[in-house]
Amino acid sequence: MILYYSVTVSVTSHTKDLIASLSHLPFNIIPSKQKRFDRRMELSSGSVEGGVPVNDLPEECWANVLSFTTPRDVCRFSAVSPIFKSAAESDVVWQSFLPNDLQSFLSTTAPDGSLLMSSASSKKEVYFSICDNPIIVDNGRKSFSLEKKSGKKCYMLSARDLEITSGTLYTGHGIPVSDSRFTLS
Amino acid sequence: MSSSAENPTLTAEITKPSTEIATETAQSAKKITLKTSDDQIFEVEESVAMEFATVKSFFEDAPSSTDTVPLPNVPAKPFSQVIEFCKEQIKFKANPDETEKKRSNSEFVKEKTNEDLVEMIPVANYLEIKDLLDVLNQAVADRIQNRSVEYVRSFFGIDNDFTSEEEALLREEHAWAFEDVDED
Q1: How many domains does chain B have?
Q2: What family name appears in the similarity comment (chain B) (predicted)?
Q3: Would B159 be classed as within a structural domain?
Q4: Contact flag B149-A80 (C-beta cutoff 8 Å)
């Protein structure tokens, strides 16, 4: 704090305006503007040559970097440092690995999936739940999941959903299997 | 790194009436003075400075200010690279070309060292230059993908504050994510 104020004294009254304006900026990463403002003031005091040391970067900065990696990288990098660990748990990161249209996709095709979205405590939980427990969609004709390492969408088609257009060998009748995950008939 | 103000008589066309030269020069050469944490003075064109959301909001609150704007969190070295980026961005604002912009952005990060990129992140974050942050985050992510935990620590210069027990536990919890990583 001392370092910062020694600067403000030597400049002008507009410095105060700048400080005041910083706390009124619109911002969508940290919920509390005041918290962010305080954080900046804190950073400006403890830094070497006035720069922000990397170890002092706020969690959301790391979360933004992690969003550009893969789910597998994020799980591994949670062991880098405590701030990486909390960034690696954040909704910002896991939201980026979920399909963009997931909410509307699930609400129209799979009531169970919708329930998952509203009951899960975090986006990470949603992610791993969809990886481990495929959701039946499209009137019971397909099952949907995410590939754990990459977050890629996976569909498993039911036999009924297959269309064989060439040849006559495989056309014909399906045999209902009572323990199939897909809808019968 | 500060660029000195250009001599008006050299840039203006001499055939124009003198009053017109004066106003035109004043408009095109409007510069904003910024002072970095290591006391370097930068004079940048207004259009470039307005790319910094933090500085822009300062001038929205005090439109007539002619004072030097202090940037207490911004050292000169990464700042000069940030200015370089923003100058390029402005060209695409006037003349949008997404393909060319992508090419220019990847060119910008390609020639930067790991250290350059890491130093620019806090500056872009402080000055709230969203386009640059996205470009930097993507570039950094590309360079650490599939790398080991140790590599990432040294890449960013991060202290490991975990006890060895805590770290072992995290590695065990996500064992599947530690297989087949690239050699350091």
Answers
A1: 1
A2: Belongs to the SKP1 family.
A3: no
A4: yes
Q: CB distance B149–A69 less than 8 Å? A: no
B140 contact residues in A (CB cutoff 8 A)? 65, 68
User: Which structural domain range is residue B71 located in?
Assistant: 8-145
Q: Which residues of B fall within a CB distance of 8 Å from A29?
A: none
- Tens-place pLDDT, residues B144-159: 999 999 999 999 999 8
pTM (global) more than 0.90: no
| ipTM, interface predicted TM-score of the complex | 0.79
CB contact under 8 A, A65 and B125: no
What does the alpha-carbon distance between residue A36 and residue B96 come to, in Å, rounded to a whole number?
33
